[in-house]
Amino acid sequence: MSTIGSQLLETPERRALRQAVGDLGRRYGSAYYLAKARAGEPAEELWADAGKAGYLGVNLPAEYGGGGGGITDLAIVLEELGTAGCPLLLLIVSPAICGTVIARYGTEEQKRRWLPGLADGSRKMAFGITEPDAGSNSHRISTVARRDGEDWLLTGRKVFVSGIDHSDAVLFVARTETADTGGGRTGKLKPCLFVVPRDTPGFEYRAIPMELVAPEKQFQVFLDDVRLPADALIGDENAGLLQLFAGLNPERILTAAFSLGLARQALGKAVEYARTRTVWSTPIGAHQGLAHPLAQCAVEIELARLMTQKAGLLYDAGEDLAAGEAANMAKYAAGEAAARTVDQAVQTLGGNGLTQEYGLGALLAATRVGRVAPVSREMVLNYVAQHTLGLPKSY
What is the mean pLDDT of residues 350-376? Predict the structure, then answer.
């Protein structure tokens, strides 16, 4: 599939980044990725090479070992790795969410402690926000952090936390009681962010059996009066949603990039198969019954890529409100494009579409990630209806 149109919208540096990351991804390929996933192992070799090359921290500040770029650059990294068959889910979490939040709101000591390792891949950080009874409603998070002298005590439960078993720490979203101007307590709870090292007493995690074929496992977490020092808090305890969405908008943009990588990978395999597979001496791609659906997929992928680029550019320009709208739209568009493209790719290959040789069957479950996480497509439509169209709130 040609990407010339999209690349002309990018700087020479970003075009070079796409090429270099794609070359790295192709050296490993989907066979490596799927073998790691099915063995229950992380893609450590690829992660390490991407870190050494500077790709993992391309969005992080240069003074802390990063590339000095933005979310737009990191989205390129994930999209190209996914296109090459290696969609590293933890890229969404460690550098995009956690790295961005710490870079924007962390203290100098916190930045120096975490960002260099996140940038070169020697350290990883997971992210915990989802709860069994809260879902997409961040206002109903029940994990609570309360003061105990200078320390914090963190109590609650989280689900669907990716990659804890190979992370050094988790950035958890909890709620704290806010202070009034006189130093008293208001009784109101606002979300706050805490870094919790994996070996902290009272922090327990268990794997969730998943049908998803990915190197990163999913976990449920139990926090039982986990004692944390004062400097475990990232940013201002009274800032509320402002700091939280500094990480959630990059998460949506990177999830869009994740979906785009899956879609482009699947379309590439389907087009090659349709071009070379012959039935009664005719390539099956000559039949409009297969050619037109694949062409529609190509159109939808390019449209989703443009919205993803727009969201990244808005975020990197500091236009947080506009970036939020664009990030939601990009995540929706890319998730839908990926689901339709992978489905059509499997249909194009017929029985071969479900063999391990071609690796498309594993993508069927993977495409659901972009539809249900980090926020469902239905909630995105609720957001667009309410905030973009100005329709009455439905929930």
Answer: 96
Note the helical H segments in the chain: 4-7, 12-38, 44-52, 71-83, 90-91, 100-105, 108-120, 241-276, 288-316, 320-349, 361-372, 377-383
What is the model's pLDDT at position 284? 97
Q: ∠ at Cα 146 (143, 151), nearest 5°? A: 120
CATH class of the domain whose range is 242-388: mainly alpha
The three state secondary structure string of 350-382 is HHHHHCCCCCCHHHHHHHHHHHHCCCCHHHHHH
H or E, element range at 195: strand 185-197
Nearest Cα neighbor of 90 from 164, 194, 174 is 164
Confidence of residue 8 (pLDDT cuts 50, 70, 90): low
pLDDT value at position 6? 53
Q: Give mean pLDDT, residues 293-321.
A: 97
- Say if strands 125-128 and 151-162 run parallel, antiparallel, or are unpaired: unpaired
Q: What is the pLDDT of residue 178?
A: 56
Is the separation of the CB atoms in 145 and 194 below 8 Å? yes
Contacts of 211 (CB under 8 A, 6+ apart): 365
Q: Is the pLDDT of residue 181 over 50?
A: no
- Intrachain domains 4-124 and 127-239 with the same fold: no
Per-residue CA distances from 229 to 142, 148, 154, 197, 339 (Å): 21, 10, 11, 11, 44
Lowest mean pLDDT among 39-48, 93-102, 153-162, 169-178: 169-178
CA distance 172 to 360: 34
Any idea where the domains of the chain sit in the sequence?
4-124, 127-239, 242-388
Contact 125, 169 (CB under 8 A): yes
Q: What is the pTM of this model?
A: 0.94
CA distance linking residue 58 with residue 64, whole number of Å: 11
- Domain 127-239 sits in CATH at 2.40.110.10
User: What does the alpha-carbon distance between residue 394 and residue 278 come to, in Å, rounded to a whole number?
Assistant: 52
The CA distance from 329 to 312, in Å, is 12
Strand bridging mode 151-162 / 278-279: unpaired
Residue 180 has which token pair?
Answer: 């009034």
> Out of 3.40.50.10300, 3.90.180.10, 1.10.540.10, 2.60.40.1880, which CATH number does the structure's domain 4-124 have?
1.10.540.10
